[in-house]
Queue: 2 jobs
Job 1
Amino acid sequence: MFNSFAAPPVDAILALSQAFRADQRPGKTDLGIGVYKDSAGATPVMRAVKAAEKRVWQSEGSKAYLGLGGDETFAQAIDDLVLGAAVDRARVRSIQTVGGGAAVRLICDMLVEGGAKTIWVPSPTWLNHIPIARSAGLVVREYAYLDHVTSAIAFERMLQDLAQAEAGDVVLIHGCCHNPSGVDLEATQWTELASLLSKRGLLPFIDIAYQGFGDGLDQDAAGLRHIAAQLPEVAIATSCSKNFGVYRDRVGTAILLGQDAAGADRAKAVLLAKGRVNYSFPPNHGAATVATILNDPTLAADWREELESMRKRMVGTRAVFATALRQATNSDRFDFVSRQKGMFSLIGLEPAALQKLQSEHAIFMPPDGRMNVAALRETDVERVAAAIAAVA
Ligand SMILES: Cc1ncc(COP(=O)(O)O)c(C=O)c1O
């Protein structure tokens, strides 16, 4: 049997990482993989994470199983971070998951069990959304999101597309720092979207994987909180991979908002059952670390400060890079880079230009041109801008 397997579809980002590792040229630059890097090009462990890990190690007296939903103090702390004061906790239930990716999967499984047939996802969206939704059994339809000409939101087309959705359909929305475009909805657009969802009986599923990377922790959750306050049922997938930098520790939550406590309880039970037949229990270490930080005012303040300095570095890099591109190309073609949010921008180069960037300039980006702006070191800015100008 094993020899008969066809190779699974290539994951463009993982393939790019492999090509990058195999490349022997000095000065090669990886702008593909989705991890934050500091100005030295490193992805260090955050200060509060290191301190909290020590406390977890010192205080942990047992490694016996926790419940299927993991660490409840962790899940509640994430509820507070994400929802703020927007909703009454009586209708909120949440569980710890194996990163944000597993939260997306378990929520899709739960939605299928609840009778959902179709999920609408933005075009474009995170590389993994469509495969996860399909493997859970959902039919995937795309709604317009990015206007590739202006590199801004295609809001009118988005509303037109979603007007075709049928009651009970699920609409996946990026909470902030849209991956891969960096283009987010404005406050008024969130309001319009909320009323369309409500009018048409659509179920919002918000994936928030970059809270704190855009405009700040509360600002990045404002749209999500509006939807949460307005709609009767909402599903939310969160990830601590980026904002706590605990990528490999696999830390996330699935949050469900029901019409009332009974509905939320029923949905949570389905979610737990889906986890049980998948990975059983989520791992403890990363979630315990994050809970330790969020439940300790000193560690939490230090984490917020370091996160804010990461955010400011990304905002600053975007501004400097946009200026360098303006000078290198003698045009405003890439000005959008400074207006976008979070780690990613779609740089808008043709596949052949991206190929040249890799072969002639040792600059690696995936075939869709998703650039990790957060991976640019100050010392790379001029060289990368000149290379883009040369191939564009
Ligand atoms: C939009 C989005 N959702 C979810 C995730 C999942 O992250 P993880 O499973 O590493 O927590 C990512 C990671 O890149 C993402 O970009």
Note: The domain at 12-45+299-391 is CATH 3.90.1150.10 (Aspartate Aminotransferase, domain 1).
Job 2
Amino acid sequence: MAKMKRILITGGAGFVGSNLAIYLKNHFEGSSITALDNLYRKGSELNLPRLEEHGVDFINGDVRKISDLRKAGKIDFLIECSAEPSVLAGSDGNTNYLIETNLNGAINCAEVCRENNAGMIFLSTSRVYPMAPLVNASITEKETRFNFDKQQAVPGLSELGVSEKFPMDGERSLYGATKYSAEIILNEYRSLFNIPIVINRCGVIAGPWQFGKADQGIAAFWTAAHIFKKPLKYIGFGGTGKQVRDFLHIDDLAVLIALELESSEKFSNEGFFNIGGGSGTSASLLELTKICESTSGNSIGITPESTTRYADIPVYISDNSKISAFCGWSPLKTMENIITDIHSWILKTPSITNLYR
Ligand SMILES: NC(=O)c1ccc[n+]([C@@H]2O[C@H](COP(=O)([O-])OP(=O)(O)OC[C@H]3O[C@@H](n4cnc5c(N)ncnc54)[C@H](O)[C@@H]3O)[C@@H](O)[C@H]2O)c1
């Protein structure tokens, strides 16, 4: 418990970072939590009063500058939640911010952990897995969704989803490549400097305080569009809306991160984990629409656009078998819980209602 005292959360004004900061502040009595963020993401500034209200300190800083990270002083743990998190980032040729933040920023975080002999938790992504074997997976088209078949040609893939045994060769998007490159360097820091570094390869994370956009934060984006009757599109895979993702409620993630902090060496020794809502908490866009319609009472026109976008894949589900067997964690919140929570958050928070309207 002593090592839980001082935690620095980079990207701490973002969706994941701010929710973790507040959860951990309440969970670990006497802990001191600092959120560092450069407020790059539109909406992150709206988290600042919330962080202050819960006793979380804030540094307006940038992970690209190690001197900013050092402003936090002595730390026992760092949770790296800063990122340019869109899978489309860099596809317009502007690659610098993505690489500098996601890769060099993560390395700066590891370096500060080395200086402090501190542990680190890294929010990585399912996007580290290459796209071609996912696009070519054996999939059945059902009435409302695509499903992974039981029998698959590649290891690490089953009807439960993608496990840690999935092959790593191939292109994975620039976003995925920045995260995977960071993982590789972090592994070296772990073994060379003997500091605990826990790597979570997360599927889609969702919940309140996510400032959803078309290319990132789809659950909040879809829910808000239904509330405020904004137009939506089913993009790619014939425009049918059958592409599937698993969704992890931020509250379920927070429970796991607290476990990882409590036993960081044990988790670190395992290398990395796939973390997500899993097959039980997944939805296609069509299914997401149905839930949003019943939550909001609104039905909106959704335009099909058949051309598939860069880096899109038909199905991703996290196979949580390894993490569940390792520590007993599995997500508890359902798809309906996720959308209901986002729905009531948008409506009861005036600053958020104005942002989305
Ligand atoms: N949300 C998801 O579905 C999801 C899924 C898998 C992995 N992740 C990972 O989880 C982490 C958190 O994602 P999120 O959904 O909270 O995204 P987010 O955009 O809400 O939060 C990221 C925060 O980082 C900040 N930031 C960006 N560049 C920075 C920089 N150079 N210096 C300091 N701060 C900077 C942003 O202002 C933002 O507040 C990211 O590493 C992301 O890659 C997210």
Note: The CA atoms of residues 86 and 216 lie 6 Å apart.
